[in-house]
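FIELD: query
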Amino acid sequence: MPCQAYNTCGPNAECSAADHCPCLRGFEPKSEEEYSNGVWTQGCVRSSQLTCSERNVSMSGSDAFAVLSGVKLPDLAAWESAVISADACRQWCLANCTCNAYSYSGGTGCLTWAHELVDVYQFPSGQFPNGQGFDLHIKVPASLLEKLGVRGGKKRAGAALMLRPATMKAKHDLSGPKQPDQEVAENGDGCELPMFTLETLAAATGGFSEANKLGEGGFGLVYKGSLPGGEEVAVKRLSRSSGQGCQEFKNEVTLISELQHRNLVRILGCCIHGHEKMLVYEYMPNKSLDAFLFDPARRGLLDWKTRLHIIEGIARGLLYLHRDSRLRVVHRDLKASNILLDHEMNPKISDFGMARIFGGDKNQENTNRVVGTLGYMSPEYAMEGLFSVRSDVYSFGILILEIITGQKNSSFHNMEGSLNIVGYAWQMWNSDKGEQLIDPLIRASSSPSAAREALRCVHMALLCVQDHAGDRPDIPYVVLALGSDSSVLPMPRPPTFTLQCTSSDRDRFRGKAGDESYSACDLTVTMLQGR
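FIELD: result
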């Protein structure tokens, strides 16, 4: 059917099952000639301008809404998460001259459209996912409603004209009583993001096919997708079985929409459809750091210059989170799989589902919900639930050691014992054998200056992973020291807390056929509580 093709009728028109593209109420064909010949791709334009846009103010009673019922909503909406009722959503749209339409339901909250209404179509009865479709409230001049017989003072202020029979009106509550996971849409913090429809993202990812699967995180799967315009995206689909998924989704939407930095992944939008919740990110063609670092076939592509570039980029991203952004953010799950790489191998910190905002003069918080990945957690956080910006510094120290050695912390072992990467790095560095920590794949080709830079990074990493948070440097110092080889670094304290996996433990937890890709010390923790 024609409506299965994206944006068949062009902007501001509705694709119908009758193979016709009527303009939305208040609009007329952009090209009458093409429209009469059945060529609809140019779509429609407003037949008369809104009063609000003419005077640049919102005048009560000047504009109203025509309601299109039982439809698939247009793409690229903005989610007004602070608006929590249908009436407040209508008033928000009336008061904002850029708002052309809105829709409100218990499952999605308040959605608004500031640009052309793209890819609107009427579902045949019973074929919409929720059985009925949505109501789209299109802003039109109040004079249009008067011409159609809607009169009277009470109707003029935000009046609505139904364009479908009353029996086709969609219910606002898509799934009966409010579900717990609707908290995101109803209790947001005022961020605005473009909204993608479930149908658009399903089409973009080939129906969330296994072939488009990029990876799996603690709270769901990530897929590669291609939008109708050809833009490649990464779609993070939240797992329905995740007990903490709603809070993490809310955190990620709130945080990433507020944070903008070249070393943080950029979010393009999100999707909320019943129990389905998804985030749409810019696509990173080189995927994540761990895909290079822990793959013997690809690790050699990371020469020392590239590794140092990645270390410095992660540090700059943390500097922005900890000090330079409007929000003060502790990531809490910094690890190699959460560092994405663009086509120029620039690192971008991702996955803010576990992040926390620090307000005022707070330097430390306590939680009984310890989340993160064992091996990257600081001792005070893993054991006592205490976290601060220096918890991220600890994780960053682990990352530096992994980048230099090319080995994963959780599967690290050596011929001299079963210490983790922190204990072994200290042992080698304190015995003046620090160069042995450099990945053999790059050690031979590294210049003397590169070796000195690597040893300085090892020194910095050992400062970052000290047992006590107060002994660790803050990230501004780390960035400054990494950018200068003239400053003298203090001596790190020897580690006393090292989470160890013995060889017998490793054999016991190793996967089938001796697979070392899994270790008991590499588990994502979602909650630790005392019995």
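FIELD: remark
The first strand starts at residue 14 and ends at 15.
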